[in-house]
Amino acid sequence: MFIAGVALLVAAVVGFFLMRNARDELHAMIGAETLPVQQLELLRGASDSVGGRGGFRKQCEVVGAAHPRPEGVLVSQLGGAECVWYRYEVKRHYEHVRHRNGQRRVTRHAEVVAGHTSWEGYAVRDDHGVLIGVDPNGTAPDRPEQVVSRFEPYRPQGPSLFGVQLPAIFDASGTTGYEYTEWVLRPGQRLYVLGEVHDRIGPLVIGKPERDGHFIVSTRSEEELRRGRSRLHRLLSVGVLVAAPAGLLLAVLGLLVR
């Protein structure tokens, strides 16, 4: 009972921080302007004219189509898809066997054994055809396209004897297979980007704010994101209000009955 109470209290604390983050992101989207790149260039020019070259900063939203960097498109590692961003993950699935009181118990687990997220920059071409750079800085976009999702059973090989492969009778690793998943952003994909526009390297780039602020790259529209954040905030609010008092009650009762 005490352990269940502590678990509920921990869940309530985690839920509270997730709820606050969803609220902050929603407020950031509501407060930010969606600006064409040409207008951002005008604002940067005004900053340069007063001696602020390289110091332009503007938190806003940019909407447009994903465009490759000057060096060309990337090629995803698992699916071989042409893209501007990709992420892959390989999970090992395995079984753990325990013998207790004459009974055999098998539990199934999974662990990530490989993975990579591309760090290369790309661009967004807005609705007026003007490009602005995007610095992902390792940030995964919201709702990318999944291009690989497969599970390959593990078939262990036995030892060889005089060049003849013998069957595997026992596999000590317990591995049952490997799961491969990969996500990409393709050129031309419609994107919503919330972040800070700067000119630190010369051309305008939007990325993670240098100080406070949020950085969101999404294949969903701003309206869809707002609805999603509002719904998540409501669900987490209810969960926190239920889990916190229930966890406290169970923890206290657990201490009393000890």
A few lines on this structure:
The chain is an alpha+beta fold and 258 residues long.
Number of helices: 3
* Average pLDDT: 87
Q: Determine the N-to-C terminus distance.
A: 10 Å
Number of domains: 1
SSE order, one letter for each helix or strand: HHEEEEEEEEEEEEEEH
Low-confidence stretches: none
Please state roughly what percent of the residues sit in beta strands, choosing from under 5%, 5-15%, 15-25%, 25-35%, 35-45% or over 45%.
35-45%
Bulk shape: flat
The structural class is alpha+beta
Describe the protein.
The radius of gyration is 25 Å and the shape is flat. The longest helix is centred in the C-terminal third of the chain and has 35 residues, at 222-256. It is of the alpha+beta class and 258 residues long. Strands 1-6-7-13-12 form a five-stranded mixed beta barrel. The protein has a four-stranded antiparallel beta sheet with strand order 5-4-11-8, with no helix packed on it. It has a two-stranded antiparallel sheet with strand order 2-3. Helix 1 runs antiparallel to helix 3. The chain has one domain (2-256). 30% of the residues lie in helices and 36% in strands. It contains three helices and 14 strands. Strand 4 (85-100) and strand 5 (103-117) form a beta hairpin.
